[in-house]
Amino acid sequence: MALPDEGSITDVAGIEVGHHTDTRRPTGCSVVIAREGAVAGVDVRGAAPGTRETDLLEPTHLVEQVHAVMLAGGSAWGLDAASGAMRWLEENGIGLDVGVGLVPLVPAAVLFDLHVGDGRIRPDAAAGHAACQAAARARPAEGSVGAGAGATVGKLFGPEFSMKSGIGTAAVRVGDVTVGALIACNAVGDIIDPRSARPLAGARTADGHALRDTTAALLGGEAPHPLIAGSNTTIGVIATDARLTKAQARRLAVTAHDGLARAISPVHTMTDGDTLFALATGKAAGFPGMVVLATMAAEAVARATVRAALTARAITTSNGLVLPAARDWVQS
Prior knowledge:
alpha+beta, L-amino peptidase D-ALA esterase/amidase, three-stranded antiparallel sheet, 6 helices, globular
């Protein structure tokens, strides 16, 4: 199924993206780089996040800009990928000048994909360095790559009924301002069509041949499967070329979660660690106002989340987990 081109986070001036995929499991990481620095904010809505360097993004805290954001699989182990990004940035002369050297600032968030294949294989510092080495201004690959390599959705009734998801990107432009999103969707809930509310990928029925519709099943009295806290999580980055303060970047991250709520159901659960970062490069001359920017961000996030499902590919893991993808349902 060919998808329409809905833009990319790299449409935002000053933004590069790189993936590293470890096909042994699979798992991986994805980095969003702002070589010249970007004002940043973050908002964590899930109850079980795995993050690094998020406190420095508080609007009242000293540091104004960051140089990259790392998204990774591997649960808390995957946070090590940010160390590799720091090393690559330092090697390339990018970072905060502290007088005695450069300190690259790389906030990070992870998703839980350890049940997909051999959980002893996780993104590490070398993986983060490789993702940076692969970073470019070109449209990044989508689907079962990078931080989305081991992503799945629809796990409330057990992982055996879940489906493959991945990472997706989209962008929205109004006037001379662009807002783009890169979303790795590993939600416990279903991915749904924002316009029709129809499930596109998620929990399957007991025979495995149809979508269950998690929200309808829960409201109908079906009991969810016991889950480990933090064993899911959707993470992503919203970037804009508008000029923002840290407080405005934080607000953009907050409102961008509206896009997740349109495309995932249920979302922001006790077993998700949903986290969105916002980056502002300040390279556009115009400023449409925060209401318009927030609307653009939510739309870009919703579109990127749907693309994370529709571009993923089915796999059978080394531990016998069969994970069909949305494209299989479309073609059947």
